[in-house]
Model the fold of this input.
Amino acid sequence: MNATLTVEGLKVAIGAANVLRGVSLEVQPGEVRGLVGESGAGKSMLGRAVLGLLPANATITSGQIAFEGRDLLAMTETERRGLLGRRIALIPQDPMTSLNPVKRIGAQIGNLLRHHLGLPKRAALTRAAELLTEVAIREPERVLALYPHEISGGMRQRVLIAMAFACDPALVIADEPTTALDVTVQRQVLQLVERLRLRHGSAILFVTHDLGVVAKICRSMSVLHAGRVLEEGETADVLVRPRHAYTRALLAATPRADRPADALRPVPPALIEQLWSEAHRLDRAGEARPA
Amino acid sequence: MADAMADIALTLPPSRLLAGLKRGGARLWVGAALVAVLVLVAAFAPVLAPHDPLEQDLMSAQLPPAWMQGGDHAYLLGTDSLGRCVLSRLIYSARIAVAVALIAATLAALIGVALGLFAGSFGGWVDQLISRLIDVWMAFPPVLLSIVLAAVIGAGLTSVIAAIVVVDWTRFARVVRAETMVQLTRDYAAAARVIGLSRAKLLRLEVLPNLVPLLVTLLAVEMGIAILVEVILSFVGISVAGDTPTWGSMIAEGRQIVYQAPWIMALPIVCIISSVIGLNLLGDGLRLALDPVQRS
Done:
């Protein structure tokens, strides 16, 4: 069976700066893979590359992205659009701004269903109400008639999650979906994502900087730094027996309930320094090689 | 665009529609009232006008309005130097003003919005081409361009409208281009792209509804401008055919006898000012009323 998502040796550059330096990772059907890294590690960039949403000045210099065995980068625009939203979906980072401010919730979910499933207007609204019930929104009919600014951030995030799973996608890319939410809502959202994943049979690529979140819902994880995968494996293995110094440093920098706060150690600057010089050495080696 | 507007306006439940109208405030009401009067007068001109606007009566030329000394109750606002009823001429002039405002502003909006969306969403050389075109266009004195155009195509309602459209599409294109660019950088637009919407659908379903409040204001302002341009063109005598009454031609005629009969020039000016103010107020009020983000 094909992996749901295969990324191989992906290199992305913005102008002269390398953002991804040969990233490889696989997401198996139904798997939840965490993609962890500090800001600037390139984890969101990877998600955007898969979705074909790279900024205009970014170029993929080498590597491959395959979805269910089909080369995403070789696809025509139309083919890829057919997959987006239906087979590959996104849970965006910021629920406050990711819904169209001047369209009712019902129109936004309805449009998606009509676009991909060809449902007639009435049926699309009925289905939209069912989807809202799935994400534990009470009085879905009332919410469908509201505008985004009339509902809370947690509720907007649930609407976006409902939209992501609406067409039973094979892969959902969750781009730090809990970052903008307060902690009490975070837990609910994570549980919700897990429940919907099981019901719709989707795999998830969970982009986050929060190791706690990874520990909660990801079966496997990749640690990203300066556009390189430093370590990957089963979450339980990586968190209990981290092999790379950077992973250990990240763990030591993560607050935990069972440790006093003064046990927190920032990632040592010397380590960061070393990792970047490795990355730059890689860049120079790439340039030296004849193209 | 009209589609998107209708969509937003018509799907509002009554309570929200009311709230929107309330937020529009006095501006909305005063503007709507002035515009309604203008439109009704234009529509029912034959019923409202006490006289044929072209009927001359040299025996009763330059009569002052009825309430002034020497006024005649048959001619409520007096007569011009050919003895034609000023009130009837003002009423019939409203027809030209309304026709020009509606048709010219709508056409200018359609062209401008289409080009603006193109430029704003494609970027690159398409944007360069359209933007430079706008720059060059706007460097031309607009009234002069209108006059040249009307003179070249010949007088008539069609050429007045054409002159206005050709000059004023830039007003829409410029604003729509900039706003489209802004909207496309918003997260919701990225989210919509990830849903797999094509560029055309993205613009029509996601971006355009966000432009509606802006477009309503622009359209109303543009209607006012169209009325003014028509006035200028008919003032210099290259608007519609000579005997059709227009506010501009009335001002031109009244100017010559402004010392003997100032009301002949003053009255059409009052009509123009109240129409344009009405349109501007209406546009402002509608913008507030239509923008769902300001609803709370």
